[in-house]
Amino acid sequence: WRNGIFVVDGSTINLFAKPGLYRETFYDWKLNYSLNCQLMIMPHNLLIMDYALRQLGSIHDAYTFQNTHIAKSHGALIPQRHWMWADMSYPTEKWCVIPFKKPWGSLNWKQNTYS
């Protein structure tokens, strides 16, 4: 993972009780009331570099990621020629690298090595 310095992924954090207002918007696909958490870490030491915990559980990871500091100010946080690893639900940018999506068949050896 040469030159990659961050890893990002999203997860839901379950709420203890149903919210009083707009409870259906907190309802996620796992049938829980939750908030969406985006976490950016440095994989070599597990240091948390950025996080976002303000979106509802029903919101997609890619949308929640747009509200993180690193997505808004990536030029100041990620050095040139470095990037962040993410899964296929995130945008493909020069600073955000995702694995190849499998087309109708399997990946060739170069794509497989990359992914």
UniProtKB/TrEMBL annotation:
- Provide the organism lineage as a comma list: Eukaryota, Fungi, Dikarya, Basidiomycota, Agaricomycotina
Molecular functions (GO terms): metal ion binding
Cofactor(s), by name: a divalent metal cation
What sequence ranges are listed for the domain DDE Tnp4?
8-111
Give the keywords, sorted: Metal-binding
List, alphabetically, the InterPro entries matched.
HARBI1_dom
According to UniProt, the name of this protein is DDE Tnp4 domain-containing protein
| Top-rank lineage group of the source organism | Eukaryota
Give yes or no: UniProt keyword Amino-acid biosynthesis. no
